[in-house]
Structure formats: C-alpha cells, structure tokens
C-alpha cells in the first residue's frame, strides 16, 4: 500500500541524526518548499522536492493526495494526564477569583479532589472519556501522547487507569505511552505521612505494574507540599529497580532540588522546571536529562514565571515541549497552543518550538521510530492549513490541522 502526499507548500522534515536536537540544531527544520512525501506500508520511503519524489520508481502506482498547506512530523505530546473523570470547575472559579494553586489545594481542591470521581468511575466510563480525548488529540495533529496515572492514588484505581490506557490503545490510532504517577500527591489515607505512602507504592503498586508491563515510565511530583528531593531520589531508585524509565515533575512552583535529584537517578526528563537555576542546568547537561516545557500550565494558572528555556538552549541542552493536558493546571490538548506559548512565553523561536514538539518530544519518550520525516521512519504526519510554518505559532488559539496520518493511515481529515 503506497501513498504519495504531494503539493505541500512547506515540508518541515527535521531530518538529521536520530538523537535529541540541542543548541543550534534545534533550529534546523529541514525545510523543503513544494514538497512531497512517499509512504509505503506505514513507513516513509521518501521525502523531498515534489518533482524528485514523484519521479521515483517507487512512486508508480501510489495513491496520490494533493494536500497544499504545510506538513510536519505529527506532534509527540510527551506529558499528559489524559485519564481523569471530571473537570475541576470549582478550582477554576476559585482561581478566576484570585486564589492560587496552593490556596485551592488548602481549600480542598487540587489533585486530591480529582481522586473521588476516578475511584468511583467504572473502567468503561474512563475508557470512553479517554477515547473521546484521543480523537481530539488526533484532530489537533498529535500522533503520540504520554499518559500518566495519578488521579487514583490507591492500588486498584491506579491500576484501573493504566489498564484503561492499555485497552483504549486497542481502539484508537493514537499511540499512548503509559506512565505510573502514583506519587502525584499524598492521598487522604496517608495524610501527613508521605514516606508511608511511597512505601505503599513500592510494595503494592510497582510489582504488579512492572510484571504486567502496564507502564513504561515512573514519575513523581517533587514540590513543596508533595514530595521532597530525598523522597524523589529514593522513589526513583526503587522504580528503576523495577525496570521503569524515569521522569519527574520538578521546580514547578519553587526551587526544591528535584531536578538534581532526578538527574542523578538518570531520569530521561524533568518536567516544568520553571524555577531551575544554573546548577540545575549544569546537572541536566551533565546527565543528558531533557527538560520538558509545559507553558500551557503557566498560562492557565496565570503565572508570569516561565522556565529559562533560552538558557537551556544556550547551554546545549535539548528542550522538549508538551501540553500537560490535565484538569487542574492545563485543560488544553492542542500542541499548536503549546507551540505558540513556548514562543511567546519561553522565548523559543518557532523553529525551536516545533522541534521541541516533534523530534525532542519523541526523544523525551525514548522513541526512535518517529519524530522526524526521513526514509525508514514511521509515517506520522500532520498537515496544517498555513502558507508558512510560523503561522502555527502566530495564529494562536485555534486548530488549523487539516489531516493527521498515523503509521501511514489518514486518521483525521478536516
Ligand atoms: O503537571 N504538577 C503536578 N501535576 C499536574 C497538575 C495536576 C493537577 O493539578 O491535577 C501538572 O501541572
Ligand atoms: Fe504534569
């Protein structure tokens, strides 16, 4: 089965070495004007100038689609909390009346207020919600998302979330990479005793999730009022012993030391990193830890502080970008908005932001088969109704995706 997508005004291939792109490399888009992409059996076989690709012998007999617009590697959204039961509208009303994230938590909102509905929800209800969201990710040009647990916070509910991800994966083309985030907050049953809760996770949740291969990564929220850097280190070491790859939410609301703790455990990514200081940047570089920017959460919380992304790029650290889609801090699943926000608020150029959302997003999930457009890569493509790729960051707040192709198949067409 062969398909030729042609008449692409601008194709951004990001072709290059199969590794995270850092420093000046993060601006190399591999732009081709008037381009085409040839796909065979779900894999890219050629990409380049229209005439060159159309004249390849391999293009004979291919289904031809005139697309216009621009084409990118479909987005890899490497940080989401896409399994939740209810939006947090009470938190939202409090916030719009001036309350902070910490004050909302104090008043009984926050992460723990999401667990009741998740614990009560049947597995079928959660699956239905996740599948509806999966369609919306696809419609926005995303082919792969990471999905965290973390709104169950007891053994059965956390497993229910991860099993939901597994079963939903059979029913959508969206590729979903599961992460165990039981260390998202201390649940009421362990109030005031985070150590005991972490021990419970290690004894009761790690063995089952690891044996059933229900999660690729383990993650923890290292933050004042949640878990400390010392707890983070101990927990991540235990997770690594069970075979999980590692991630951590660090320095989101203040500088607590989670970035260094996570890097020392060889975490693949540290996410948020708003309050990172020079020492954290030096450590990330030394350990090859990728910072994941989540500026949609800063936007939604009305924060004016954003991660020092320019310093990361200047230091030669590859930067990734994700939506953080979740009911508390980022009810946004559109990577186009994250790209715009990364440009406006984190000082990335459109080229750097798009690289962060594609190649480096895939690397943040340790995926080597996607993220850029080159022969041999999975054919995950997103097409947008733009004349110039910079419009993706410029016309913000909408969805200009016209077609999403996952593993060679058109799964969405506007
Ligand atoms: O990435 N920081 C921790 N986790 C989420 C927020 C979760 C919530 O408020 O429900 C985040 O921002
Ligand atoms: Fe998060």
The assembly state of the depicted protein chains is: single chain
Number of helices: 16
Helix content: 25-40%
- Structural category: alpha/beta
Instruction: Tell me the count of domains.
Output: 2
CATH class of the largest domain, please? Alpha Beta
- N-to-C span: 23 Å
CATH fold name of the largest domain = TIM Barrel
- Residue share in β-strands: 15-25%
| Hetero groups | N-(iminomethyl)-L-glutamic acid, fe (iii) ion
> Which word captures the global form?
globular
The beta-strand count equals 16
The largest sheet, given as strand count, sense and whether it forms a barrel, is: 8 strands, mixed
The CATH superfamily of the largest domain appears as: Metal-dependent hydrolases
Arithmetic mean of pLDDT? 97
Q: Whole-number radius of gyration? A: 21 Å
Low-confidence stretches: none
Could you characterize the architecture of this molecule?
Helix content is about 35%, strand content about 20%. The chain is built from 16 helices and 16 strands. It has helices at about 50-55, 90-95, 100-105, 115-120, 125-140, 155-170, 195-210, 230-240, 260-265, 280-285, 295-300, 310-315, 335-345, 350-355, 360-365, 390-395; strands at about 1-10, 30-40, 45-50, 65, 70-75, 75, 140-150, 175-185, 215-220, 245-250, 270, 290-295, 320, 380-385, 400-405, 410-414. The strands form 2 sheets. Strands 1, 2, 3, 4, 5, 14, 15 and 16 form an 8-stranded mixed β-sheet that branches. α7 packs parallel to α8 and α9 (about 260-265) runs parallel beside α10. The longest helix has 18 residues, at about 195-210. It is globular, with a radius of gyration of 21 Å. Bound molecules: N-(iminomethyl)-L-glutamic acid and fe (iii) ion. The site of N-(iminomethyl)-L-glutamic acid (NIG) has 13 residues, from loops.
């Amino acid at each position: 089965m062969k398909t030729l997508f042609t008449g692409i005004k601008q194709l951004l291939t990001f072709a290059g070495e199969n590794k995270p792109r850092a420093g000046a490399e993060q601006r190399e888009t591999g732009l081709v004007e008037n381009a085409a992409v040839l796909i065979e059996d779900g894999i890219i076989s050629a990409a380049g100038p229209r005439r060159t690709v159309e004249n390849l012998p391999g293009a004979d007999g291919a289904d031809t689609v005139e697309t216009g617009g621009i084409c990118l590697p479909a987005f890899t959204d490497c940080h989401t909390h896409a399994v939740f039961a209810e939006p947090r509208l009470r938190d939202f009303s409090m916030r719009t009346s001036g309350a902070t994230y910490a004050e909302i938590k104090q008043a009984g909102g926050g992460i723990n207020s999401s667990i009741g509905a998740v614990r009560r929800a049947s597995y079928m209800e959660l699956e239905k919600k996740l599948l509806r969201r999966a369609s919306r990710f696809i419609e926005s040009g995303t082919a792969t998302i990471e999905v965290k647990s973390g709104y169950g916070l007891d053994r059965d509910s956390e497993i229910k979330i991860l099993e939901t991800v597994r079963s939903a994966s059979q029913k959508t083309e969206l590729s979903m990479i599961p992460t165990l985030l039981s260390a998202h907050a201390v649940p009421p049953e362990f109030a005031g005793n985070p150590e005991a809760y972490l021990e419970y996770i290690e004894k009761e949740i790690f063995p089952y999730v690891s044996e059933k291969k229900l999660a690729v990564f383990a993650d923890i929220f290292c933050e004042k009022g949640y878990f400390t850097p010392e707890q983070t280190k101990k927990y991540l070491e235990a997770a690594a012993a069970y075979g999980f790859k590692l991630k951590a939410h660090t320095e989101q609301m203040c500088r607590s030391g989670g970035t260094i703790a996570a890097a020392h455990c060889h975490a693949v990514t540290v996410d948020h990193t708003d309050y990172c200081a020079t020492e954290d940047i030096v450590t990330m570089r030394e350990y090859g830890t990728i910072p994941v920017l989540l500026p949609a959460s800063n936007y939604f919380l009305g924060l004016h502080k954003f991660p020092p992304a320019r310093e990361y790029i200047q230091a030669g650290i590859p930067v990734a970008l994700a939506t953080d889609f979740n009911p508390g801090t980022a009810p946004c699943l559109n990577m186009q908005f994250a790209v715009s926000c990364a440009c406006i608020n984190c000082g990335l150029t459109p080229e750097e932001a798009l690289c962060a959302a594609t190649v480096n997003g895939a690397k943040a999930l340790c995926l080597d088969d996607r993220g850029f457009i080159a022969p041999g890569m999975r054919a995950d493509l997103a097409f947008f109704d733009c004349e110039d790729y910079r419009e993706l960051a410029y016309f913000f707040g909408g969805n200009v995706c016209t077609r999403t192709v996952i593993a060679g198949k058109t799964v969405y067409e506007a």
